[in-house]
């Protein structure tokens, strides 16, 4: 759980342990930061991107930090690829998806 110091008080931030999240466009920019924040708070995250090389590099960085992140190469403009993504996420998370962020 992450902590924030405000004045002389130590305030614990919320925990996302046991939660699952899907973040589209998670290999760079705001999507990358979203994946990192959710994982840092304890969520298991699945992310996708069209760029496999960039996605693999991001996954390597998250793994080095000990984050639980899986990935798919997916073009969200393709109906067939969206269906495949949802099938994979449903399987990985045993049908339990708590958070979805479209970036």
TrEMBL record:
Family statement: Belongs to the short-chain dehydrogenases/reductases (SDR) family. SDR65C subfamily.
Name the record gives this protein: Tropinone reductase
Domain of life: Eukaryota
Keywords in alphabetical order: NADP, Oxidoreductase
InterPro entries for the chain: NAD(P)-bd_dom_sf (IPR036291), SDR_fam (IPR002347), TR (IPR045000)
Gene3D superfamilies for the chain: NAD(P)-binding Rossmann-like Domain
Molecular-function annotations in GO: oxidoreductase activity
Record organism: Flemingia macrophylla
């Amino acid at each position: 759980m992450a902590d924030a110091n405000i004045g002389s008080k130590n305030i614990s931030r919320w925990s996302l342990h046991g939660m699952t999240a899907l973040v589209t466009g998670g290999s760079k920019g705001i999507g990358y930061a979203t994946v990192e924040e959710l994982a840092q708070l304890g969520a298991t995250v699945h992310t996708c991107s069209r760029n496999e090389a960039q996605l693999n590099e991001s996954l390597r960085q998250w793994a080095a930090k000990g984050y639980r992140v899986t990935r798919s190469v997916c073009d969200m403009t393709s109906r067939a690829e969206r269906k495949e993504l949802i099938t994979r996420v449903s399987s990985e998370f045993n049908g339990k998806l708590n958070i979805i962020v479209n970036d």
